[in-house]
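Take one record.
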Amino acid sequence: MKKLSLIAIVILFAPALFAQSNSSLELSVDYSYFRAAQNTFIPNFSLNGGGASIAYFFNKHIGIHADFQDYGSHSLNFSVPAQSAPCSGLADCPISVKSNSFTYTAGPIVRFHVKRVQPFVEIMFGGAHDSSYAKIFNACLNQGGCVNLSKQPNNNAFAWILGGGMDIPFKEHIFFRPIQVDYVHTSFGDSLTNVHTSQSNFRYLGGIVIKF
């Protein structure tokens, strides 16, 4: 709730901050689908959530963009194969955790004007939060058959995003964003395997944009 309240405050008061200038401002709210690729014994998983973003354009094409996405809580249920690196016992190690995830990033954005469509590209840097890794660590530790437990994974990691999309006018100042596709790189260290310390993820967003 605190994260959503902060986003709401930004959306409500940002237009007033720029009302006295000739700056171009965009506010958006969206649905977000996130596909997390693990490349370890942890299975890939998908998240559904939403968020908001704000973009300030210095001129017709170049601006700065801040994005906040919250995926709420999600559950992971899987089994680690017996006699594998993280599960040295004779029986599979069942894992069941409930976690929460969100991202917060900012960076440059470039938009174009192609007839009535406005495509854009962006690169953003910031952080990601996902409590899955620490909770999987604890669940594996409680099994009593785990090895290579160097330290508990951090719930927070560096993240960068590269992607783009397009906006289509709907009414005056209101645009429809049917698609935004992003590559999301996160750096959650996996102390269970000591092999993969980053993840290459996919993200789709779609929503409504208000342009001032």
